[in-house]
Each structure stands twice: as C-alpha cells, then as structure tokens.
C-alpha cells in the first residue's frame, strides 16, 4: 500500500535532481498496486526549484528555528490587524534580521548537501521566507518542509485586513503639521529655555520615528519588487538553459539526418549505376 503523504514527505527532502526519478518510481509502484488515483497524485507532484528545496531543507534541519519564524509571522499579522505602529517597527526590524540569517543558513545547508546556492537563489529563499511570514497556509506547509513552489510574494502584508472597527489615524503631510502645543506660560513670564528645547527635541524625535517607519515600509516594498524580479529572472534563465539544450539536441539530430541524407544520395547513385551496368550486359 503506497502512502501518498509519506511519499511526498520523502520526495521533498530529496535534492532537485533526484526528485523526478524517485517520483516516477513511486508512481509506477502505486500503479502496479492498483492505486491508480494515488499514482496520478504522485505523478502530479511538482519538482521544486533549487530555492524552494533549500527553504524546505532549512525547515527540516531546525524545527525550533522554523517555529520561531512562524511566531514572528503571527506577531506581524497581528500588528497589521491592530495597526500597532510601534510593534510593526520592532517586528519589521526583527523580520529583516531573522530572514537574512535564515537565508544564509539555507545556503550553508545547501552547500553541505552538495548544492551551490547562488546569490540570486539565496534572495529567492529570502522572498519565500517573507511570503511564509504573511501566509499562514504556506507557513504550515513550509514548516513541514513540503513546499512545492514559492508562495506568491507578499507586498507589505497587504492581504492582512485590520480588525473590525479599527481604522488608521490619518496623518497630515509633515509640512502641514502644526507643532504640538506646549504648556501655557504664566502671565508675564516666558517659558524656560530648557523646557522649550526639550519640547522641540521631543517633537523632532517623534517626526524622525515616523519618517523611519515610512522609509522602512518603502524599503521593504522596493526589496520585495526587486526579489520578485530576481525570481522571474531565475525562471527565465532556467527556460533559456532548457531552450539551449533543446537547440543543441535538435542541431545534433539535424546533423545526423544530414549525414544520413548524404549517405542515402551516394547509395542511390551507386544503385543507379549498378542498374545501368546490368542493363548493358
């Protein structure tokens, strides 16, 4: 009896170049056992890209680290739902640090398995991990090391809706904001210079924090766009490599056919010559 889930768990732990042969062998075993539906399910399992395989290997290698990422994702989604700016800033910084470190670890693990993970593929692993942070379903699949393909890129957690009744407080453009009123000075007396300086410094710090949060959000969106393009480039390069190999195969076949044609022409000439000689006799 072939267990499809067990087969899938085994296959997504293999290196990409080992995947297809093993999948086809399991599908054949299921067909011989009369499990036609299961054989179709196994045959439909998708070979992972190198980056997806590396992300799966990362989750399988360290379950505690995988759970840490899942907890970070839950915190980020909750912060988005409640529009908690302070939590978002802290968790966003933590996200950058954790994702970068885990992508580096994925590259090391890939190297241990004899696979060279390029800088582009490592960026694709980072993109996968950021998508996992935003998508609970993808997170669960990844935590079991069984991603078939990279989840769709998540731009700034746009798909996470705020909690009912929660609305962001509108912020006017910085140039239009009025300074926060300070305490009224006593009649006939100006505010102390130290108090004025403290108020000004405090307000500048608040504006700087807001500007930092906006810059981090813009940077994250830009990096996500770049990573999505890098992923597209990787796919196009793979298609180009496949096309080049196919061209080489067809060119070799064309050359062999040309040689066979020339030989057939020579053979036909010899046959015609022999036939003429036979008629003269």
Keywords:
281 residues, mainly alpha, 9 helices, elongated
Q: What's a quick, concise take on this entry?
A:
With 281 residues, this protein is an all-alpha fold. Helix content is 73%, strand content 0%.
What report would you give on this structure?
With 281 residues, the chain is mainly alpha-helical. Among the domains are: 40 residues, no CATH class; 147 residues, no CATH class. Helices cover 73% and strands 0% of the residues. The protein is built from 9 helices and no strands. Helix 4 packs across helix 7 and helix 5 packs across helix 7. About 10% of the residues have low confidence.
Write the layout of secondary structure elements.
Elements: H1 4-11, H2 16-32, H3 36-43, H4 50-61, H5 63-82, H6 85-112, H7 119-134, H8 136-143, H9 193-280
Helix pairs in contact: 2-3, 4-6, 4-7, 5-6, 5-7, 5-8, 6-7, 7-8, 7-9
Kindly report the average pLDDT value: 78
N-to-C CA distance: 75 Å
Gross morphology is: elongated
Helix-and-strand structural type: mainly alpha
Show unreliable segments. Answer: 158-186
Secondary structure tally: strands: 0
Specify Rg, calculated over alpha carbons. Answer: 31 Å
Largest sheet descriptor: none
Kindly estimate the percentage of residues that lie in beta strands according to DSSP.
under 5%
The succession of helices and strands, N to C, reads HHHHHHHHH
Please give the share of residues in helix. Answer: over 70%
Q: What is the count of helical runs?
A: 9
